[in-house]
Amino acid sequence: MKRLLTAVLLLGSAAFPQDFKLGSQVSDFTISDLDGKPVQWSTIKGDITVVMFVATQCPVSNAYNERMNAVYNDYFPKGVKFVAINANSSEPAEEVREHARQNKFPFAVYKDAGNVVADRFNAQVTPEVFLIDRNGTIRYHGYIDDSRNPARIQKQGLRMALDAVLSNQTPPTTETKAFGCTIKRQKRT
């Protein structure tokens, strides 16, 4: 029984490999814009890029909408590119477009049909962020900050990592536990 369970776990992990891990390089991939047109990662990334997995219906992700805009406004002028990805199978592109418009997102939001990109990053919740440096290496993974309630924030994980990477330093913390709503994945057959 133990061997069978081990075999099932190994097969399961092989079926949905995590390509992009902390410290690894992010290779090119394809994602869709909100009109359904394929877009290559290599055409939307910057020298330094923040990938944010977001949702329209998640109250935790929505609690961060203003903070995501603020981080963008503070770091985009410093050359940081922001790529938001919605991987929820329950949130159609038109809903994602309207949500981005209502929240005045200054960054593009892409749709991850079939959660292929979320699987490659092993993103689990919204919001969840990945900071990718000039060499294409993931330097930080985790939360934007440590509290859904802005009055209780003690650690600004993403901002600290951005400041370090922009200064060619190692982030003081490279991984934190992202929290939020689980990504609603498309069921595989």
Describe this structure in words.
With 189 residues, the protein is an alpha/beta fold. Helix content is 32%, strand content 20%. It contains 7 helices and 9 strands; from the N terminus they run H-E-E-H-E-H-H-E-H-E-H-E-E-E-H-E. The chain has helices spanning 2-15, 41-44, 59-63, 65-75, 93-102, 116-121, 157-166, and strands at residues 30-32, 38-40, 48-53, 80-86, 108-111, 125-126, 128-132, 138-142, 181-182. The strands form 3 sheets. A 5-stranded mixed β-sheet has the order 5-4-3-7-8. Strands 1-2 form a two-stranded antiparallel ribbon. Strand 7 and strand 8 (138-142) form a beta hairpin. The two termini are 24 Å apart.
Overall helicity = 25-40%
Q: Whole-Å distance between the termini?
A: 24 Å
SSE topology string: HEEHEHHEHEHEEEHE
Strands, count: 9
Based on helices, strands and strand pairing, what is the structural class?
A: alpha/beta
Uncertain regions spanning at least 5 consecutive residues? 1-16
What is the mean predicted local confidence, pLDDT?
Answer: 91
Q: Kindly estimate the percentage of residues that lie in beta strands according to DSSP.
A: 15-25%
Give me the number of helical elements.
7
Major sheet: arrangement of strands: 5-4-3-7-8
Overall, the morphology is globular
Task: Offer a concise description of the structure.
The chain has 189 residues and is an alpha/beta fold. It has helices at residues 2-15, 41-44, 59-63, 65-75, 93-102, 116-121, 157-166, and strands at residues 30-32, 38-40, 48-53, 80-86, 108-111, 125-126, 128-132, 138-142, 181-182.
